[in-house]
Amino acid sequence: MKRLVVCTMLAALSAHAAENTDALRKEFEAYKQASDARIQALEQEVAEKQEATLTEEELATIRNTLARATLDFEFHGYMRAGYGVDDSGGAMSTFQAPNSGAKYRLGNEDDSYLETTFLTRTAPEDAGEDVSFETIITLAYSVPISNGNDFDSTTSLREAYAVATGIVADSPDMSFWAGQRFYSRYDVHMNDFYYRDMSGYGGGVEGISIGENSKLAIAWLGGSIDELDSDGSAFEDPDDNFNKNSLDFALTDTVMPGGTLDVFLTLANFAGDTFTQDGIDHEVDDSNGAAISLMYKTPVKKTGSNILSLQYGTGAAANFRAQMTVPNGLDLTNPNSDFIDTDNARTWRVLDDITYDINEKWSLHGLALYEESDYGVSGPSKVKWASLGARPIYHFNRYFSLATEAGYDYTDTDGGNSGGVYKLTFAPQITPKSTVLSRPAIRAFFTYAWWDSDFKGEVASSSYNSDTHGLSAGMQVETWW
Question: InterPro entries given for it (predicted)?
């Protein structure tokens, strides 16, 4: 009986507590609703008072300022980073044919590189209507993957210039620029080969209308003293790069059957210079030179393109760049290399670069290239380079794909070795879209390469000095924005 009474009393107390809790909850919700209503009323009252005290012109200015907040500043960049190992677990080595201008890069890059570009625009009220003033700065950071602790990280100011557009009323696309900048750069993405790169210091005018579609650009350029090459890798010896003067003309976007034609003419002057390497003094003779490049561009479906390029350069303009460099592959231990007659330097090149999305499942990079160069020294002085490569990409769905890259480079050095390097890479990857250049690309890679016996000790020598084949595996991210 006592137990029943106790249970009854506990049940009554619980019911009463529950009733009190529900009542408190309802009271709190009612208070919250009333508070929210009062806050909204106050905010509306403040807004009405603010609008009442501002003129329409002031309100328009505020709205325009808010709208332009993200238009007057831009942040762009490029990045690649990762890590790879060779078959012994040491840091990976890259596979590149001796005296070739580039290597097939998928699963074959041994550095991390970051390039950040900051752009700011002068506000319209200061620049004027339909006029644009832009200031651009690009900073870069490069660090190699190394087997030891003897590597150097490189920080660089790659661009610092300003450009003004729209100040000529009859030519709204015409722009004027001055400073240090990336200028007239053309590269094959698959092997990062810059077959024309006039980046440097100087100034010029762009966007001059010629006829219905063609545009003319003229620039005076001095070679950059940057320690980074066009692809972001550090020069082995920056002291081997020299300044020269270039006057560059470009006529672009001329409509042709099936596509457009770009024509580039460069006139260069080099005052001569000297450098010392391995205890040997070398003289690089002064020179004038000229170079011409023809690029026929055709669209491939909606997102792709094909570029057929023909180039010929002589003397100081033979390398199609704004700076002088010691010829690639020149044997500086050869007694004949102590004097480089730049006037005798010659380069001619033909290449075809295709990039496109075949369908929802397949994308493709492709390259065919042939080049002959003359160093301008007495004795053996010529290099021939042929390259053929393809990177088909199979998309399993929007995000997952498998990239396979097969590349072949053949070089023949006058008085030296000749042979080929073959490289094959498999890289499963994740990208935002199922397109050929969708980035970021987060990938794993496995690379196998083999080469002719003449190149033993000259390919991936830090890992495979006595071999004619090698492999590497790792992870990498590549992106631009």
Answer: G_neg_Bact_CarbUptk_Porin (IPR050286), Porin_LamB (IPR003192), Porin_LamB_sf (IPR036998)
